[in-house]
Each structure stands twice: as C-alpha cells, then as structure tokens.
Amino acid sequence: MKTYKRILAFDIGGTGLKAAVIDPKGKLISEHLHVATPRPAEPKQVVKLLVEMGKSIMPFDCISIGFPGVVKGTRVVTAPNLGTDMWAGFDLAGQLSKKFGHKPARLTNDADMQGLAVVRGKGLEFVMTLGTGFGTALFLNGELMPHMEIAHLPIHDGKDFDDYIGDRALKKIGKKKWNKRIEKILPMMYSLLHFDHVYIGGGNARHIDFKLPPHTSIVPNIAGIEGGAALWRHGDRVVVTALS
C-alpha cells in the first residue's frame, strides 16, 4: 500500500482559490496560497490558476480538491456559485492530474473536506460552512455521509439558504441582521438532523457575535485545506465511502 507523504490540497471557493501542501496529518508543510476566484469562473481559467499555485509549492505526491458543489467521482455535477452551466460534467480531478504529470487526484465537496479535518468521530456530527454560499456535511461516527445540498432548499420569501445567509446577504443586510438569521437557522438544522455536535466554518464564521448554543464550535477556515489529508489516509485504498 502506497503512502503519500506530501499532498497538494486545493480549497475552491466562490470568492477565493486556496492551496497548500500538507502532510498525512493535514499539517501545512508549504506556504498557504490564496488568490481571487476569476469572474467568470470558467473551468479552464480556474484550472490554470490552480496549476500555477501548485507549481509554486511543489513537490507533492498526490492531489486533494474541495469543490463548492455536488461532485461524483472525478467530475463536477453542480457549481451554484461558479456557474453550473460551465462546470457540469467537467473532469476536474482528471484535468488537474494530467496537468501535474498524472499524479493521482481525488475530488470531494468543499464542506465535506473541511469536515474531514474537524470531526471527532463520535455520534452524528454536522458541519456548516459560511462563505460565498452555505455548505454542509454530515458524519456518523467519523464516516462521511452522502452529501446534501441544503443550501438550495427554500427558507424564506422565495430565497434559498445561499440567498438568505450567503455572502451577498451579509453585505446587503449587515452583520447584525445576518447574525439573527444564523441564530435562527441553527435550531432549524437541529430539528432536521438532531446532531450531537455542529461545527461552523468558512470565511464568514468570524462574523458570528452571539452566544452559541451547547455542542457548537467555530472552526478555522484552514480546515478546508487540512481535510485533504483524509482523502489519502489509507494510501491507494479509498475508505471515505461517501464522497459526494
């Protein structure tokens, strides 16, 4: 069984593209790079930027990719904050593998990848990411469950969760009203899932200013990179059975 000691991890977001080389425990062993996501976020342009970042922090043995949407295998299914019409069916992991000399590459949802870095493996654990949109991931005793796109369920006045608490909403209504919305949806998520613990991450988690309910933790945004180690923790054998 091959062990990968240096993992190039990408965290792709609607606002920024992040990259770093990490060790098998998720610890950064290179510079942490961050560039703005291009607009329009065409796949070829995004791949070009990712390749430039990766080449600047080589060497590495394999590639982990967190993507903001539904993915299956090596391909993108949806990309709500980048443009599904452009991305649907795009072989992102395959393209990045090819660009880096056919190094092995694995692809998962970005919230799932963040969750892989922070969950404790006890009971039902829920991960929420607050960034350009609203990401979610669910784990049972440390095992990643099938991905759910809760972000695109309606919540209020024709708005889905991305519209209601995403970055555009934060900028439009301000931090005070946005915090009230976050405080409102936490019990909604509990009623839906009855989780044992919830982790809140993403770039906008830093704006939360109300007292969090029990069994709730704020996690650092860097977890979106660190979780890439879990995709390779067992070498060539895929043990994360429910990648999106």
In short:
With about 240 residues, the protein is α/β, with parallel strands linked by helices.
In words, what does this structure look like?
A hairpin with a 2-residue loop joins β9 (134-140) and β10 (143-144). The chain starts with 6 loop residues before the first strand and ends in an 18-residue tail after the last helix. The protein is 29% helix and 25% strand. The chain is globular, with a radius of gyration of 17 Å. With 244 residues, it is α/β, with parallel strands linked by helices. The protein has two domains: 7-112 and 223-232, Nucleotidyltransferase, domain 5 (2-Layer Sandwich), CATH 3.30.420.40; 120-218, Nucleotidyltransferase, domain 5, CATH 3.30.420. The chain has a five-stranded mixed β-sheet with strand order 3-2-1-4-7.
Secondary structure elements and pairings:
Elements: E1 7-12, E2 16-22, E3 33-36, H1 43-56, E4 62-67, E5 71-72, E6 75-76, H2 84-87, H3 92-99, E7 105-109, H4 110-118, E8 124-130, E9 134-140, E10 143-144, E11 154-156, E12 159-160, H5 161-165, H6 167-193, E13 197-201, E14 216-218, H7 223-226
Parallel strand pairs: 1-4, 4-7, 8-13, 13-14
Antiparallel strand pairs: 1-2, 2-3, 5-6, 8-9, 9-10, 11-12
Descriptive key words:
disordered C terminus, single chain, 2 domains, 244 residues, five-stranded mixed β-sheet, Nucleotidyltransferase, domain 5, alpha/beta, 7 helices, globular
Shape: globular
Low-confidence spans: 236-244
CATH superfamily of the largest domain: ATPase, nucleotide binding domain
| Count of structural domains | 2
